[in-house]
Design goal:
CATH superfamily of the largest domain: MetI-like
CATH class of the largest domain: Mainly Alpha
Low-confidence stretches: none
Structural class: mainly alpha
Largest sheet: none
Distance between the termini: 36 Å
Radius of gyration: 24 Å
Number of domains: 2
Strand content: under 5%
Mean pLDDT: 85
């Protein structure tokens, strides 16, 4: 009976494994095809694209990238997006690491309640507080400034960052901190010189995730920033939906320029991301 059971498990695992592989390959194709289509179509003439949008082009035309770069002022808005992304990620990493260490290692009244408040950020959609935030920023006179995007982007990225980093800190043995306390170290020294250097994998994961999210954010800058002076890349492309709406290949070229840096970042750090996500999964 035991041998039959093992044989059945192997057969089930084999069938399930094949079905899972087929599903994953199908999902990969569905995900990659639009991206490949965007890259190929961005290097076509507009007339060729309109006549046969799904056809493989006979020749590539890379002049679209130069035209799109100039028309959308991508160089200038690239700097704006870089500033928003960099400052937002710095805020998220700084405050989430300190909050996660506090929730994981310190004992004080109201700790569990404060930690539970961070989960509201995972539950509530951005649309639910967008109007209230707009009114608050208007009263505070920070609309049409970079802070009107940096602050909410940072707030949105904090909950998941705290959750990930706290899970890692929970997996660390307390003997490290106890030894440091015996040597006379205070809480800030333990956090800065012991816990934080060990958490480099999960910190890198948080940085990559929030860099991608901040770079691709569209709704917040679209609502909060109306001045062309402070628009990031995602909303600067609105020029192709107005006076240049017919030039589809230029829009695709601009999208390609914007998306490529994030693809590169993800592929470079994908192993680091996997290590960071699984870093707090097991506890000795």
């Amino acid at each position: 009976m035991n041998k039959k059971h093992k044989s059945y498990n192997r057969e089930f695992t084999g069938v399930f494994g094949k079905a899972l592989r087929i599903f994953l390959v199908f999902a990969l194709i569905v995900y990659l095809l639009p991206i490949l289509w965007m890259y190929v179509s961005s290097a076509r003439t507009n007339a060729d694209f309109i006549n046969a949008p799904l056809k493989i082009p006979s020749r590539l035309y890379f002049g679209n990238y130069v035209k799109a770069f100039k028309m959308a002022k991508i160089g200038y808005h690239f700097i704006i997006s870089t500033i928003i992304t960099t400052v937002s990620v710095l805020i998220i990493v700084t405050f989430s690491s300190m909050a996660a260490f506090s929730f994981s290692r310190l004992r004080y009244k109201g700790r569990d309640f404060l930690y539970s408040l961070f989960f509201l950020g995972l539950i509530l959609p951005t649309q639910s507080f967008l109007v209230g935030m707009f009114v608050m920023f208007r009263v505070a006179h920070i609309l049409n400034t970079l802070w009107s995007v940096i602050l909410p982007v940072s707030a949105i990225g904090l909950p998941i960052a705290v959750l990930l980093i706290k899970a890692f800190f929970d997996s660390l043995p307390s003997s490290l901190e106890e030894s440091a306390l015996i040597e006379g170290a205070n809480v800030l020294q333990i956090f800065w010189f012991i816990s934080l250097p060990i958490a480099n994998a999960i910190i890198a994961t948080v940085i990559v995730f929030n860099t991608i999210n901040a770079w691709n954010e569209f709704m917040l800058p679209f609502v909060m920033i109306q001045s062309d002076r402070f628009k990031p890349l995602t909303t600067s492309l609105y020029v192709f939906s107005t006076k240049h709406s017919a030039k589809l290949t230029l829009k695709l070229a601009a999208l390609t320029i914007i998306a490529t840096p994030m693809f590169i970042i993800y592929f470079i750090f994908q192993n680091q991301i996997q290590k960071g996500i699984t870093a707090g999964a097991l506890k000795d």
